[in-house]
Amino acid sequence: MKSIDWNSLRGFHATATTGTLSAAAQQLGLTQPTLSRQVKSLEEFLGLSLFDRVGRKLVLTETGAELLRHIDKMADAAQSVMLVANGSPKAVSGRVRVSASDSYSAYVLPDICARLKAKAPLVSIEIIASDTHANLHQMEADIAIRHARPEQPGLVGHHVGDTTAAFYASTDWIKHNGVPSTPEALAATDLIGFGDATRLAAMLRTLGFKVDPSDFRLMSDSSVVVWEMVKQGKGIAAMVKEIAILAPDVVNVFPDLAPIASPIWLVTHKEMRSSPRIQVVHDLLARELAQLIAG
C-alpha cells in the first residue's frame, strides 16, 4: 500500500488554516504551484475533495474539515515533541484565539501580546473582543479571560487572581460637577451603565449602592464605549484598576470606599488544554495577568 506524503499533509494543513494558497505558500516557503500540486496530490491519494473555491478563498468541505481535525492533533503531537526537545516556548508555533471583554482587549491585551510575541515568536494571537462569552464548546475561542469561575461541564478554569474595580470620573467632570459626597449620592450623578440596566442596578445594590435602573443617564453594551465616555467627561462608571490606571485624567471618586473585588479566570476546553500552543499561551497569559493585577 502506498504511504501518504507528509509534505502533502503539511501543505493541506497550511492551506486550510490560512484560507488561501498564496498565504500558505508564503508560510511554508514554497511556490504557489508547488503547494497546489501537493494539495491536489493529497486529494487524488485520498480520492476525496477537500476544498471548495469561494472567490479567492478555499473553503474546507465537510470531509476536509474532518481531516483537518485529525491533522491538528498530529501537529500538536509534533509541537509537544519540539517543546520537550527544546524546553522553550520559542519552539511552538500556530494560532491561538484569545477571547476577552472589549475593554480588556483594547487596553490590556495589546501590551501583553507584544511580550508574548517576544517569548513565543512563532505563535500568532487572534484577539476575539466581545463583552459576551465566546462559546468554548463550539471552539469559538481557545482561551477565554473571564471574571467568573466556569460552571459548564468540559471547561477548565485557572484562577489567576483577583483584581479590583471602583467608580471613576474625569477630572474635567469633577471640576464641573464636584465629587459625590457619599456612595448614596451616586444615583443623582451622571451615572454611566454597562450592559443590562436592571441587572447592573441589582448587582450594585448588593454592594450597598442605592441605584435603580432609571438612574443610569447613559448606557452601552460595550465596555470600551462606557470607558471612553468616562474619559471624555460624560459621567461616572465602574472600571477595573489595571485599565483605570492607564488614564491619567481619571480619578477614583470614592477613594476611601473598599474596592469591588473581581476575579480573573483563564478558561479553556479540557480537550484543548493539552495542545502545546494553547498551553504555552495559557501559561504566559497567566503569568502576565498575575503580575498586572499585583502591580
UniProtKB/TrEMBL annotation:
Recorded GO MF terms: DNA-binding transcription factor activity; sequence-specific DNA binding
Domain HTH lysR-type: 4-61
Keywords: DNA-binding, Transcription, Transcription regulation
Record carries keyword Transcription: yes
InterPro entries for this protein: LysR-type_TF_proteobact-type, LysR_HTH_N, LysR_subst-bd, WH-like_DNA-bd_sf, WH_DNA-bd_sf
PROSITE patterns referenced in this protein's UniProt entry, alphabetically: HTH_LYSR
A single GO BP: DNA-templated transcription
Source domain of life: Bacteria
UniProt key word Transcription: yes
Family named by the database record: Belongs to the LysR transcriptional regulatory family.
Protein name: LysR family transcriptional regulator
Organism (species): Aliiroseovarius halocynthiae
